[in-house]
Predict the 3D structure of the following.
Amino acid sequence: MAQSRQNTGTGASAEAARDQVERMMEQGRDIASSAIDQGTEQVRQASDMSRTATAAGAMSAMRSGSAVAEGMDQMAQAWSTYARDVMQRTTDASQAMMRCKNLTDVLGVQADLMRGHMEAFLGHSSKVAELTSRIAMQSFQSYAQPGKDKGSTG
């Protein structure tokens, strides 16, 4: 009978060990499932953040490109104005030279023409430098403020 009691005690110990192993396995599955759920959520959040950052970068690049295109148009207009002014000044000087009676008058008209060209060049160059600076600032600002749309009210 002692043997039977010993077998019953061993059977109870084995069953208790099996129950403990099953509980540990279930806890392991729960922990693994929780870790997978957390990992999946983190990947989803990272994907959302990446998508948002990509969209913001694209909008910034678009605003920057728009600012550059607008600035380039203004620079083209400035140089066109300069060319028109130079042509007009040259035409006026040519007509004035035709009316000159001596070499001194011709040299005076030519000196005035060169002075006028130089002043116009410096004035337009200054305007173009200002436009270039403004284009650069607008371009950088569009990247520094990716959440703001051009013309938004809030």
